[in-house]
Design a protein that fits this description.
The complex is a heterodimer of chains A (125) and B (111).
Chain A: E1 3-7, E2 11-12, E3 18-25, E4 33-39, E5 46-52, E6 57-59, E7 67-72, E8 77-82, E9 91-101, E10 106-115, E11 119-123
Parallel strand pairs in A: 2-11
Antiparallel strand pairs in A: 1-3, 3-8, 4-5, 4-9, 5-6, 7-8, 9-10, 9-11
Chain B: E1 9-12, E2 18-23, E3 36-40, E4 47-50, E5 64-69, E6 72-77, E7 86-94, E8 99-102, E9 106-110
Parallel strand pairs in B: 1-9
Antiparallel strand pairs in B: 2-6, 3-4, 3-7, 5-6, 7-8, 7-9
Classes of the chains: A mainly beta (125), B mainly beta (111).
Chain lengths: 125, 111
């Protein structure tokens, strides 16, 4: 089955750019939306945005100014860049595949399945 | 402040039934967008529990069920077990934000 794995630096300095990559294994990255979601310690989940395999993106308005996502279909990877980070960006970052249809039905909102195990990114000098 | 509102905590004794509510608005659940639920065990990534309001992925026990009405949705867990102790999140789409939104999460304690 499809598995996702996040990778990237665990420590980023304030004002710098956070960069993470998600590697998809066990299946093709093609023809899906791929999302980044984060979770500060002890808090809830926040959708950061998603990218389609064509390169089309949609970002959370609260982060849009600082977020860039990209996809490399040849490597079965997609990436997140978050610029000008502060301590408020410290969180576990998850990558996930979006689904909106089963073999029999399509739905009006996509869900996230599967998820990567998550990677903790700390913003500190 | 999450777009979808959940109670911070619920609790129940083993064998009992509990429900977790998820309240939205006219730009998300009330607009007809479907609701999904996730279970997050301590120290792990969220796992899809219910999709499309009331559908269980393969492997999810039928003790878990979902429903949706108006601007709200609910997750019901019957026959509570100790292993159900986790955080639960609802998720949908919001047309004002043009993206996915989550509830703030509900911590389930099995007494």
């Amino acid at each position: 089955q499809v598995q996702l794995q996040e990778s990237g630096p665990g420590l980023v300095k304030p004002s710098e750019t956070l960069s993470l990559t998600c590697t998809v294994s066990g299946g093709s990255i093609s023809s899906y939306y791929w999302s980044w979601i984060r979770q500060p310690a002890g808090k809830g989940l926040e959708w950061i945005g998603h990218i389609y395999t064509s390169g089309s993106t949609n970002y959370n308005p609260s982060l849009k100014r600082r977020v860039t996502m990209s996809v490399d279909t040849s490597k079965n990877q997609f990436s997140l860049k978050l610029s000008s980070v502060t301590a408020a960006d410290t969180a576990v970052y998850y990558c996930a595949r979006e689904e909106g249809c089963t073999s029999t039905s399509c739905y009006t909102a996509n869900w996230f399945d599967p998820w990567g195990q998550g990677t903790l990114v700390t913003v500190s000098s | 402040q999450s777009v979808l509102t959940q109670p911070p905590s619920v609790s129940g004794a083993p064998g009992q039934r509990v429900t977790i509510s998820c309240t939205g608005s006219s730009s998300n659940i009330g607009a007809g967008y479907d609701v999904h639920w996730y279970q997050q065990l301590p120290g792990t990534a969220p796992k899809l529990l219910i999709y499309g309001n009331n559908n269980r992925p393969s492997g999810v026990p039928d003790r878990f069920s979902g429903s949706k009405s108006g601007t709200s949705a609910s997750l019901a867990i019957t026959g509570l077990q100790a292993e159900d102790e986790a955080d639960y999140y609802c998720q949908s789409y919001d047309s004002s934000l043009s993206g996915s939104v989550f509830g703030g999460g509900t911590k389930l304690t099995v007494l």
